[in-house]
Amino acid sequence: MVARRTRRAWGYYLGVLPFVAFSLFPFYWMIVTSLKQNSEIYDLRAIPFWFRVSPTLEHYAFLFQRTAFLTWMGNTAVVAVLSTAAAVLMSILAAYALARLRFRGGETLGGAIFAVYLVPTTLLFIPLSEVIRELGLADTRWALVVTYPTFLVPFATWLLMSYFRTIPAELEESAWIDGCSRLGALVRVLLPTAIPGVLTAALFAFTLSWNEFIYAVMFVSSTAQKTLGPGVVMELVRGDVFYWGELMAGAVLGSVPIAVVYAFLLDYYISGLTAGAIK
Amino acid sequence: MFRTVLQRKPGPKYTSRILSREAATAYIFVSPAVGLLLPLVGYPFLLSLYLATSDAVVGNLGHFVGLDQFARLLRQEIFQQTLKNTAIYAIAAVAAKVVLGLALALILAGFGRHQLPGSRLIRAVILLPWIVPTALSTLGWKWMFEPQFSVINWTLAQLGAISYVSDLQWLGEPNLARAAVIMVNIWRGIPFFAINLLAGLISIPDELYEAADTEGASSFTKLWFITLPLLRPVLSTVVLFSLIMTISDFNIVYVLTRGGPMNSTHLLPTLAHQVGLMTGEIGRGAAVSLFMLPFLMVVVFYQMRLMRRKWQW
């Protein structure tokens, strides 16, 4: 019996191994390349998987000293933090109204927000770029701060709405009797109970904004306003030449903050990821 | 305080006032979200209908031309090619993600059932392709597909599958480029399928499997007659989501091939970007994007129906 159990356990580890390898290999390859000297990256006789000569940090140094990488990182952080904060605030209010309050048009609005949630960002980027121009935001990072909430709010509202519904309404009702206003009950009674849901929504919004690439490519073109994705993908290629060492260094550094945030909040991440399909 | 107590008192006299106060609060609470979405989603949507039925170019809103843009597009070879690419891309990538995602979910469920150590770490690792910025990880793949100095062709040459490393131009030959783009999409999408299907698997009651065990059912019988039927709601939701995301994909194609070689990897969004923003024909570009709309409406319709059915249970 024990032998059979051990054998079965080995079977699971063996089965998951190809998936783990497939997931990780590109990251391994990116990190190794980013630490290799150029002479080794472009050596036809070298075995590419490992170092033959000593590793180097020169590609990272180049990124910081000779490119606008830090500016792009800063822009990305500003855009992600601001659009996340705005989106979460708006979503908390909207989700509370949709989950708790009866009002004419409420159901229609809920359906409309769900439909917008399914609209991909690539459907409307051409008219939206016109709107951005009319607003005078063309080619600034503010264009992103303003447009990112359009896909964050539907997602976060939907997620928070289903979270609020799992919390019994009696808690707030007793707060009203004690003289709390609706907003007071929301802030002082519901939100403290709903912290995991709010955190999940914020984590998701932050990840989506940090990773956003389409609007960032479409709406921003000057180097000083760019975010990480377009900066690394478009500006580190000079002429037609790809400098793979620097490109991989940029790709690794641009992914690290997200990987760190998510390492700490894995469980929230998973509950958010499955919220669309389950419940 | 006094007012609140009064309002909580039951009785028909106050009902309408309470309701109207409740409704007023609700309208105030939803106004920021509505105030954001109307001008930045609703208005652009109407504008896209206007643009797609005009001959607008950048800086000139043009004239109404009816469905001319759509008719012209359908006659264009590059557009027909794009529709064909989209079908190949979506079907191949989603099919592979269903199969591999389900396999991975079943393995991960086994880790949970037998309480094997390391399952948290494995889940974290499995999720990585989904969480890091796609544009950046696709750049890593672009480097992997590089024919001369990179790992894929080096390994194939060592194994004797090709005689020279430069024999396989992954991103330079139409069918290979399609395979490459699909591969990256699968790599990025497996975690989404696996984690969602895993959540679905966990929610299936153990008693069903125990009952099947006492009847002496085989693993395959259990998978076919218990797991798959009960997984169907989750599976259809995940497939619908993934179809939208795959068809409307921009990042992978843009970073890997920009739609080339010979337009063999163009999808509607990359073509719309090229036509509308690079060439400046925003009318035609908007029409290209709108070809995604009928499909999107079908998905929204099915998704809503699925949810309603779940609510009824």
Which strand order does the major sheet of chain A show?
Answer: 1-2
General form of chain B = globular
Beta-strand content of chain A: under 5%
Low-pLDDT regions of chain B: 1-15
Distance from N terminus to C terminus of chain A (CA atoms, Å) equals 38 Å
Poorly predicted ranges of chain A: none
Helix-strand string of chain B:
HHHHHHHHHHHHHH
Residue-averaged pLDDT of chain A, rounded? 90
Order of helices and strands of chain A: HHHHHHHHHHHHEEHH
Number of self-contained structural domains of chain A: 2
Topology, pairings included?
The complex is a heterodimer of chains A (279) and B (313).
Chain A (H helix, E strand, L loop, with lengths): L1 H33 L3 H4 L16 H9 L2 H32 L5 H13 L6 H10 L7 H24 L4 H8 L4 H12 L1 H17 L2 H6 L8 H8 L1 E2 L2 E2 L1 H21 L1 H10 L4
Antiparallel strand pairs in A: 1-2
Chain B lengths: L1 H7 L3 H41 L15 H8 L1 H37 L5 H13 L2 H11 L6 H8 L15 H29 L3 H9 L4 H29 L3 H6 L11 H11 L3 H9 L2 H20 L1
What do these coordinates show?
The complex is a heterodimer of chains A (279) and B (313). Helix content of chain A is 74%, strand content 1%. With 279 residues, chain A is mainly α. The two termini of chain A are 38 Å apart. The mean pLDDT of chain A is 90. With 313 residues, chain B is mainly alpha-helical. Chain B folds into two domains: 2-42, no CATH class; 72-312, MetI-like (MetI-like fold, Orthogonal Bundle). In chain B, α2 packs across α13 (282-290), α5 packs across α8 (174-202) and α12 (268-278) packs antiparallel against α13 (282-290). At the A-B interface, α1, α4, α5, α6 and α7 of A face α1, α2, α4, α5 and α6 of B.
